[in-house]
Amino acid sequence: MQLPYSIIDVFTKKRLQGNPLAVVFDADNVPTNQMQEIAKEFNLSETVFVCSPKNERHVANLRIFTPSEELPFAGHPTVGTAVLLGLKQRITAVRLEEKIGTIVAITERLNKVSGHARFGLPELPKQVGDAPDIDKIAGSLGLQPEQIGWGSMQPTIYSAGVPFVLVPVSDQDALAAIKLERRGWTDVYGGVSDKVYVFTPVDHMRNVQFAARAFIGLGNLKEDPATGSAAAALCGLLAQQYYEGEGLVDFTIAQGMEMGRPSYIEAQIKLENGQLTHAGIGGNAILVGEGTLFLGSE
Asked: Where are the alpha helices (DSSP H) in 62-129?
């Protein structure tokens, strides 16, 4: 069996920045265990398998794998795959089936190899648990307890399909100073989620309101350059504790700077009568390469 695949960098307009994604096409006959093996082979934060949709009105059914597990939803695979399918099929509304539900991504072609996609979250973010003790969080990140939190905002756990421990820190100096203490990570974050999203507001980056770093157990604990599902979770916390008023709010999160993979995640929330009624994620993506997978014993 031979399967075409693409590598696309997501949440960036520039190749070799953002978060790389592998997208494997024509994957209907690939068994689940082999999908997991292929994702481990690519060893990227996520690999997407594009299958035929269950509903003929939709464009594709997506299965999303990290090197160690399948996910019900992820932001950068949704954006990257929507851009690719929009470019290949010359469509602007890409209806995607994921385990979390159906997602409609609106795409824009920038040129032959790059585009932009945005989509509304199929599941609004909500608080799903309490964060570990601040002293333990600080120790796991190599920070001082007083660097955790800003204003009235403190660590908590939110999910828009994938739960994240959201950790506000005092400033960008604290964000840059993080040094992971890998020993005992599971003991600290062994509850609802071991995925940690650290963020802080910024005021000196053009068109950027927040900076963030994500630390995820992708087979082994490491940093992720751009994490759409974490940004989706963050929408819930910001809607509840940071943004006030009514109507639409757009903001951008810079991530991956410390890794040399600058990424820009666009987010949007809508507040009505003080309640979150809409949240969305978007960004740019650019094709890096294409190839063929040769599966089988020969």
From this structure: 75-89
Q: Given 41, 46, 97, 244, which residue is catalytic?
A: 46
**Angle at the Cα of 287 (from 162 to 3), degrees rounded to 5?**
80
Tokens at 200, concatenated? 């802080």
In this structure, the chain runs to a length of: 298
In terms of C-beta distances under 8 Å and separation of at least 24 residues, what long-range contacts does 210-216 make, across chains too?
A: 210/234, 210/251, 210/252, 210/253, 210/254, 211/172, 211/175, 211/253, 211/254, 211/255, 211/257, 212/175, 212/253, 212/254, 212/255, 213/175, 213/178, 213/255, 213/258, 214/164, 214/255, 215/180, 216/45, 216/66
| 298: pLDDT strictly greater than 70 | no
CATH architecture of the domain 126-282 equals Roll (3.10)
Q: Greatest CA separation found in the chain? A: 62
How far apart (Å, rounded) are the C-alpha atoms in residues 173 and 3? 45
Concerning whether 246 is annotated as a catalytic residue, the answer is no
- 184-210 per-residue burial string, b: 16 or more CB within 10 A, e: under 16: ebeebbeebbbbbbbbbbbeeeeebbb
The pLDDT tens digits for 106-151 are: 999 999 999 999 999 999 999 999 999 999 999 999 999 999 999 8
For the chain, which residues make up each domain, given as ranges? 2-118+284-294, 126-282
186 backbone dihedrals φ, ψ, rounded to 5°: -65, -35
- Superfamily of the domain at 2-118+284-294: Diaminopimelate Epimerase; Chain A, domain 1 (3.10.310.10)
Domain 2-118+284-294 and domain 126-282, same fold? Reply is yes
CA distance 222 to 224: 7
Indicate the pTM of the whole model: 0.96
Cβ atoms 214, 178 nearer than 8 A: no
